[in-house]
Amino acid sequence: MSETPPNTLQYRFDGPEDAPVLILGPSLGTTWHMWDRQVPELTKQWRVFRFDLPGHGGAPAHPAGSVADLTTRLLVTLEGLGVHRFGYAGCALGGAVGIELALRHPERLASLALIAASPRFGTADEFRQRGVIVRTNGLDPIARSAPERWFTGGFAAAQPAITEWAVQMVRTTDPGCYIAACEALASFDARAGLGSVGAPTLVLVGSDDQVTGPAEARTLVAGIPDARLAVVPGASHLVPVEQPAAVTDLLVRHFSTAWQPAFETATGQTVLPAAALNPVPAPAPPQPVPVAEIAPPAVPQVTHGRPDPYDTGIKVRREVLGDAHVDRTLAGADEFSGDFQELVTRYAWGEAWDRPGLDRRTRSCVTLTALVAGGHLEELAVHTRAALRNGLTPAEIKEVLLQAAVYCGVPAANSAFRVAQRIVREETTPQE
């Protein structure tokens, strides 16, 4: 166990101190105990390192809002322990960390296993919606529905103790850290980079996984050059828990036969012990050949202009309003309305909403008040959803509308309350 400063992760080691290190990364809502059934066999060959996500399993509640942040914390933790090269197996969000390691820190990774993973987990809207539900209702609705997401129906019915363990594991997670992890998954998209993954990779999935199933696994295998697929029958999303023997056997076979030798670099990276793996020294990886670009004729450059804010605007617009809404709006634009949508994207979202002077919660408060004053009820519905995504609670939205009633008039606020009440119910009611 460890003392855990904000930039590191809570961890534990099992197995011989002189063995090569194998890291096991957990899924969202779980703890390192999801790997308990794998550890006895894996520690016969490896020193197994497990970690908890922030706010999970009693770990300090230091939220991490991106997969890159989680990966950095993992590497800082490993640096402090003198672990420079390792194998890595991760489930779901833990798999996203594995992909990030393979893309950003390939010299650290000897071999990779991605379990119930995807290069893009659902849609950003789905995970931000889950964050709204947790912010409003706490984790109990998510905890109660966890077994049906994680296990097949037959397993859940036959293993009530494990089912209850799963519920309690989610229920005791810190809500703020869970919401931050949802944001991390919402923004994670590695589809364009899969071809750059150089580590030998096992992609493992349960045949009945309805969360990140065989289709997502095949996307990973198709994109990663050195990847193999294993589909475990009779298993759903949390396949290491539901089919522990099959997963253990697959991990042992993969990491025993597909362990890439260390890069020969001058960066001081520590190679795993030769006695453990008998690695063959590898030549330095080829460096990409710089590509020369033909320079255009010299033209005086305008240095006082500002960059086009459209790209920033479309990014902010999607983050605040959601992909589904933005996609519908842009798809409905035609020759007549297209220029207006570009103007809105550039100047409302790329300029005003992207300014650093106010955070998005405050901008949502201002926007709701202005829409009440103007009687723009259709836009009020859109921005009530946005306010929930930006972190306002229903109680805070109510206070904004009460304040607006004083300064914008009771009739305007009356209409606004009807709209906002409907949206809050839609957005915060857990889906069965």
Structure description:
With 432 residues, this protein is of the alpha/beta class. Helix content is 50%, strand content 9%. It contains 19 helices and 7 strands. The chain has helices at 39-42, 67-81, 93-104, 124-137, 140-150, 153-158, 160-171, 175-187, 214-223, 239-242, 244-257, 274-277, 310-321, 323-331, 338-352, 360-374, 377-389, 394-408, 410-428, and strands spanning 11-14, 21-25, 47-51, 86-91, 109-115, 201-206, 227-232. A 7-stranded mixed beta sheet has the order 1-3-2-4-5-6-7, sandwiched between helices. Strand 2 (21-25), helix 1 and strand 3 (47-51) form a beta-alpha-beta unit. The longest helix is centred in the last third of the chain and has 19 residues, at 410-428. It is elongated, with a radius of gyration of 25 Å. The protein starts with 10 loop residues before the first strand and ends with a helix. The model is unreliable at 266-303 (pLDDT under 50).
Helices and strands, with pairings:
Layout: E1 11-14, E2 21-25, H1 39-42, E3 47-51, H2 67-81, E4 86-91, H3 93-104, E5 109-115, H4 124-137, H5 140-150, H6 153-158, H7 160-171, H8 175-187, E6 201-206, H9 214-223, E7 227-232, H10 239-242, H11 244-257, H12 274-277, H13 310-321, H14 323-331, H15 338-352, H16 360-374, H17 377-389, H18 394-408, H19 410-428
Parallel strand pairs: 2-3, 2-4, 4-5, 5-6, 6-7
Antiparallel strand pairs: 1-3
Helix pairs in contact: 2-3, 4-8, 5-7, 13-14, 13-15, 16-17, 16-18, 17-19, 18-19
